[in-house]
Amino acid sequence: MSDLHFNVAVIGTGPGGEGAAMQAIKQNKSVIAIEKFYEIGGNCTHTATIPSKALRYAILRMSEVNNYMRQMSRPGMTIDLEFPELRKSAASVIQKQVAMRRTFYERNGVELVEGAARFVDPHRIRIDTPNGLTEEITFDYAVIATGSRPYRPDDIDFSHPRVFCSDTILNLDFTPRSITVYGAGVIGCEYASMLRTMGMKVNLVNTRDSLLDFLDDEISDALSYHMRESGVLLRHREYYESIAGTNDGVITALQSGKKLKTDILLFAAGRTGNSEDLGLDTLDIEPNSRGQIEVNDDFQTNLPHIYAVGDIIGYPSLASAAYVQGRYAASHLDNGECERALIRDIPTGIYTSPEISSLGKTERELTESKIPYEVGHSMFKHLARAQIVNCPTGMLKLLFHRDTLEILGIHCFGPNASEIIHIGQAIMSQPGEANTLLYFINTTFNYPTMAEAYRVAALNGYNRLF
């Protein structure tokens, strides 16, 4: 370690930590980034976003090839890869991400140290390195970006070879015929969707009344419909009584009296912040029951010079959100303020099949706020591009103010929704009268494309006005 005092100490090298470190170094701060594990990138790179999305891509490509062969009357020409083979596709992506991100730290002069960080007092951190040595540094500001891990209740035996969380399921060494997914949040819905695409029988146990109820009702309903249509068995308002692994499967007993037996179980009911062993008690920072740290609107803890970003603070628990939160924190600690547009409108990307992405207000929120709005729809089944690529499922939905034509919400359900959303985001983020439905009406889109859904939806909504 070249120095023992730093302007900014960042704990964790996931998206939140990286965003904070890169922004702080650009502001001519001396920065140290402390990572507990040998490889940088955090859970996002190694156990969550990157591996799960690479797995999903491999599954979808295999499914698309097999469907195409059936349509071409070539039923014998199919691909039938096992789960471990499909999982391998992520390995090269992970290594590329790690190598690329390491160069960010090296090129920008961030001191990158492997070790477990623990606060000794409000301006000192002890680092226990893998070789058994202990270093101690002092700092002016700190950013906690240690992420989260799957929530694992004590009454469930996760050491059983058929009981998994969202981290361990990536190491599944066989292809099961059936699975119970307990928890129908984003992670649960994503895995239920992709594993059903593989042909597994899927029970999705939801403790709430509907799927992903933070979404626009129409999008949530569409997800439920297509889940059921694909063969996923949805069980709403259910809670487990016990989960017991056996030699040939897992028995999930529900409080309603139902019992489910499947080859494996994926427990996906939330995540826990990685806040233990950080020495937060020395700072009088007390995490909640899920290990999350409370922060103010500027991501400051109860000590103004110590910030927390990313999954460690809870919602929205998105890699994209964590990165901009890290940038915001580093900008704020530099001059006491930051442009709030950086964190105001963060799109939701949910990688079910089909994808979901949304930005802004839902119909429910606009109705409750008594905002006069109108709706424009574009059904993908009517778009030439969707017909050509044989992906007719989905829609784009625009919510706009019926008097000013300001875009208030964008909701997309269908293939590449997480990409399509950004076209609307570019207009919605414009100040004043530049945020207008008329942009989509008066703009020529390439044909045939999925992007022209914006023109169709805009005209559909505009024609409702009187």
Automatic annotation (TrEMBL):
Residues 346-457 form the Pyridine nucleotide-disulphide oxidoreductase dimerisation domain. Its cofactor is FAD. FAD binds at K53, T146, G147, S148, D311. InterPro entries: Class-I_Pyr_Nuc-Dis_Oxidored, FAD/NAD-bd_sf, FAD/NAD-binding_dom, FAD/NAD-linked_Rdtase_dimer_sf, Pyr_nuc-diS_OxRdtase, Pyr_nucl-diS_OxRdtase_dimer. NAD(+) binds at G183, A184, G185, V186, I187, G188, C189, E190, G270. One of its GO terms (biological process) is 2-oxoglutarate metabolic process. Residues 6-326 form the FAD/NAD(P)-binding domain. Binds 1 FAD per subunit. It comes from the Bacteria. Its main location: cytoplasm. GO terms for molecular function: dihydrolipoyl dehydrogenase (NADH) activity; flavin adenine dinucleotide binding; NAD(P)+ transhydrogenase (Si-specific) activity. Keywords: Cytoplasm, FAD, Flavoprotein, NAD, NADP, Nucleotide-binding, Oxidoreductase. Its EC number is 1.6.1.1. The keyword NADP applies. It is found in: Cytoplasm. GO terms for cellular component: cytosol. Gene3D superfamilies: 3.30.390.30, FAD/NAD(P)-binding domain (3.50.50.60). The keyword Nucleotide-binding applies. Belongs to the class-I pyridine nucleotide-disulfide oxidoreductase family. Conversion of NADPH, generated by peripheral catabolic pathways, to NADH, which can enter the respiratory chain for energy generation. This is Soluble pyridine nucleotide transhydrogenase. The gene is sthA_1.
